[in-house]
Amino acid sequence: MAVKLVKHLMVANVVCISPFSTLREALSLMKKHTIKCLVVDRQTPHDAYGLITYTNILKTIIAEEGDIDLINVYDVCIKPALAVSQEMAVKYAADLMIQHHLKRLLVTSDNQLVGLLTVDDMVKDILLLID
Question: Which of 71, 73, 74, 85 has the CA that lies 20 to 30 A from 53?
Fold first, then answer.
């Protein structure tokens, strides 16, 4: 059996957002694309990518009573977001996710964003083995 690589399971069409966008804009993009997270763009080639999820936003606007029109994405995103190479074996990406209690990893090639790998992507692949 061939080794499964991250690039075989990742989602390549990743939706990105500026760190200077508001949480309202982030929620709008998530709603429009029916997704649970957005990649936060880098500002320079040496900057790190970030990640913003429903959980980050909910914590900010509900638990901390933040205003979705006044708070920017960079105020609540996870940065730097953990990233793995698209050439990494999926089993190592899974180990990393388990060790760090993560549901998503950014996927890069030469420090450029190429995709997103989620727990759901891996579970879908496993379910294909079941009849």
Answer: 85
